[in-house]
Amino acid sequence: MKEIYELFIRTEREEKLYEKAAELAKQFRKRAHLYDEQAAFPFENFAELKKEQFLSLTIPKKYGGQEISLYEFLLVQETIAQGDAATALSIGWHLGIIMNIAQERKWKESVFSRLCKEIIQHQYLINSAQSEKATGSPARGGRPETTAKKCNGSWMINGRKTYTSMAPALDYFIVSATIAETGEVADFLIPRFTKGVKIEETWDTLGMRGTRSDDLILEDVEVPEEALVEMKSQKKKGNPQGWLLHIPACYLGIAIAARDEAIHFAQTYQPNSLSHPIKELPEVRRKIAEADIELMTARHFMYSVAEKWDQYPDKRLHMGPELAAVKYAATNAAVKIVDQAMRIVGGQSLFTSSPLQRFYRDVRAGLHNPPADDITLSLLAQRAFSHE
Fold first, then answer.
1. Which of 253, 312, 361, 380 could form an S-S bond across to 207 if both were Cys, CB 3.0 to 4.6 Å?
2. pLDDT less than 50: residues of the chain
3. Which CATH class is domain 127-232?
């Protein structure tokens, strides 16, 4: 497996990150089937991630974190996903959100520094709760029906959020809400054990079952004034967010795992109609080669864009189309690669004992992570025909 990483590991630090992530992935792979089958949150996996201090990888060095780059973040995510995709996607939200807050600097220093210290000291988990049934994905621009009202110097928040990944394990939620008095939208930082915070187990999906993206219910949740961490503008679009490349990295990790599974099968399966394993068949070799071309194309695209993001901060404002295109190219390539792997293995790939059927279900979730394909295509078309 490591040989396909040789081109992408550039430094000794990246080598160490990869090795540690690969060792974790090896352990996660042993439990992936069980977590998927039971649609259970992978608490054991996260205990190991916490033990290895992975929750602080993207925390700035000045707060005691490792402050890894976007490129390094993707290397870690892609590797972990080969062991258990649901674990990788989940930890990716936590790590990416911390990276984004640090880069955009929209939060009060005192609030963010305290959060970082708590993550380092107590291994706290954080994720955003933005989606709602009525609004769909936040990328579509819908105004939250969750409301925040001023009440005696505090905020009173009521609402219901969907797709709250890691819901059973989160210590903090970043909740978007519409301020009742002004109609403005803001993000609020809410601790898990605040009175009125509840989790309803609604996650019953085909893929990414271990993310446990259950519903978050907020009933008269009272938080202090400083819980408002960021105001959102409905008119002005936010800055491009490089951290979201953790999504395509995760799905390319699934593709790599499927590709490796197909190669192993081709090397070891020999039907009695042949005098050799099926790896010698031209059609099998063609399918593997086509899968590798898809994989190489997507990975080189993703890592080159990440490298540009890291090396040229002044160019980030103009990188939105490239970031969206990476997600589009990588997730669609991953779907194709898993399909090719299953065609090589044949009917045996459909057995529940085969990891390929899990890869098939998990990889399709990438099509519904942000940004959706239609948004990306619209963005690129708009840029192509712009006269600015």
1. 361
2. none
3. mainly beta
Give the strand pairing for 172-179 and 185-191: antiparallel
- The rounded distance, in Å, linking the Cα atoms of 207 and 86 is 9
3-state secondary structure of 68: coil
Cβ-in-10-Å burial (0-12, 13-18, 19+) of 271 comes to: exposed
Where helices occur in the chain by DSSP H, the ranges are 12-38, 43-51, 70-81, 85-104, 109-122, 246-268, 282-311, 320-345, 355-363, 373-384
Give dist(CA 162, CA 165) in Å, integer: 9
Q: Which CATH number fits domain 242-383: 1.20.140.10, 1.10.760.10, 3.90.1150.10, 1.20.140.20?
A: 1.20.140.10
Tokens for 233, please give them. Answer: 């503008």
Matching residue, tokens 């649609």: 39
The two three-digit tokens of residue 347, written as one number:
């009917």
Q: Which residue has the tokens 């905020």?
A: 155
